[in-house]
# Entry
Amino acid sequence: MDLFTKCENYSVAKDAQASGLYPYFIPLEESEGPLAKFNGKTLIMCGSNNYLGLTTHPEVQEAVHAAVSRFGSSCTGSRFLNGTLQLHEQLENELAEWLEKDRALVFSTGMQVNLGTISSLVGRKDYVILDKEDHASIVDGARLSYGDLIRYKHNDMDDLAGKLSRLSPDRGKLLVVDGLYSMEGDISPLPEIIPLCKKYGVRLMVDDAHAVGVLGKGKGTAAHFGLTEEVDLIMGTFSKSFASIGGYIAGDETVIDYVKHNARSLIFSASIPGPNAAAALAALHVMQREPERIERVNQIGATMRAELTRLGFDIGFSETPVIPIIIGDDTHTLQSWKLLFENGVFVNPVLSPAVPPGRQLLRTSYMATHTDEQIAQVLSIFEDVGKQLGLI
# Structure
């Protein structure tokens, strides 16, 4: 069989486009934080990870402009060779201090952080243990490692304890969890996970891509629970609250040094350009100086959770400004997305297999820069669409 036969037979996307229910790769003309524009129509953006609204902050933009003038548009090489700037190291040092860890290491993307960190640390005689709702980058990092992959039911501590109890005590073990789960907005129960890790000799890595800037006064999930010292590795990205692109891993100096010299996704990828590093560093400074942004996004999240629940929507177990509207069916989820889009609200439809069957949902997320008027308008549109489709 020709390798490309599967491509010729693939029709899912074309069928969705033909039906008018294709929700992906939407080319926005403009995106100004809480507002976006498509085909001349303004939408309220409720599907972005720009939690603190820093992509349009003047200090971040000025830092980018200055870095373009100083460093140009690209480093044209990997961190390992010619692609490390003093700016990268400054960013790493300030991140480590902010997260209360010895060292941090900056990668080109968040995906590459998980691919490189997990695959370099977990060897042939090791275990890597994952929550079943972990991000795809964590799963792919585990697959790239040569360790045995163990998965447990989402946030189910009995299942985790049972799985850990059956593992050989003579083999290395790394447990990787999302701090804030990006689809349903719930939080990893670190106060219950950490005692199990200690009992069974497991190292713990927390993916805080969505949590830094939102939880723990901006420092993430471990800080949220007051357990920073108990978490071995904290991973994060610059593509959410940091208003840029890239990612990092933070932990003990010896571990970070090992990853630095063994992570293939770091060694064989060009480093993030100076302007992106400058944007992330400026965003960190704003985050530290303007804690009211963190308070604001969480206040909006609390308002939306309360109001959507009052209207009768199922929002699952969300505890954060990431709030799902669980619909449970592919077609109805796409119909809901389309009606919201047509009425001026941008959200993200999430279908199987990205979520389990019966948990298909609209992923909504909110920003510190949403105004009260915009939030009220969004709720009014949700109510109208919910009634029209019989969701509430």
Summary: Residues 292-311 form the longest helix (20 residues). The radius of gyration is 21 Å. Residues 343 and 381 are 7 Å apart (CA to CA).
